[in-house]
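Protein of interest.
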Amino acid sequence: MKRIVVLGAGRVGKVIASDLCEEFDVTSADMSADALALLSKRFAVKTRVTDLGDPNAVRDAVGDADLVICAVPGFMGFKTLRTVLESGRDVVDISFFPEDAFELNELAVQRKVTAVVDCGIAPGAPDYLAGYYAGKMQIEDFEFMVGGLHFHRSKPEEYLPTFSPVDVWEEYTRPARYVREGKVVTMPALSEPELVEFRIGGQELVLEAFNTDGLRTLITTMEGRIPNMKEKTLRFPGHIAYIRELQRTGREWKPDTWTPREDEDEFTLMRIVVQGNEDGQRKKITHTVFVTYDSETQMSSMSRATGYSCTGVARCVLDGTYKRAGISAPSHVGEAQGCTDRIFEHMRARGIVFEKEVEEL
């Protein structure tokens, strides 16, 4: 039985370990003994109390793994990934660190390691589709919008985070890059707000969308192939104004006050739109996913959507369906034969269902 080490036992790390332990020998490593105890109580997962900020401790933890999954906070992701690569272990990473993962490509190639980064719901799912469709058609425009929200709208911020609050705030301060007519354009985060309508379960939902730096590796992997690309974050109307006021006044932001309970009534919503030409016919292809909290597993929509995307890629790496020495972006996985269909079917089987609509233009 293949051995997997999951670094991090937070919300997403818990989902990943619980899904993989049904087929593999899984060890979850984290500094929190309490988090590990909760995980091992419910699932057949081995645990290891480990200081993941210590490279030597990480090397010890991953030493005999067939695959490592990095599910650590973004601020420590790059350093942790580098340590795993130095250890010569294949790895799938969902820490979404701000550094450029391709800086580690030479190291990964030298170690003959398959290392796939950004394998979550977004980045992740849109990237698989970008790679998949780029191999089938000439894409003219590629845009996706995504948000993790709560039905209960907390005042005055109109939002509670569904992943690390520190990483949420980073999205609001890091300049947003998108691609227009083949050139990278940089805009402030929160810029170009617009109201967007969704129809969910027969009800209309109006959200505000704004620029964030979510294209990530697509800017590099789709250079020269997709001339127009953009990513936006979705929130309830009023959230942009609240954040801008915090930034304007320099008031202290306290992430702890934004941390939701595990059983909050929350959801994840994403729309991915691909426009282009396939066999002489212009098309608009829309993929939409809507996921809610799972009371049976007591896991949030965002952690499940992110985690099951990751475990779909992990299975492709484990059985050799995807194998490529060096740093791979999720769009590389999307381009590989059979991977996209397999990953989306893997998510569908776990309740993460993307509805597809094709319109001829």
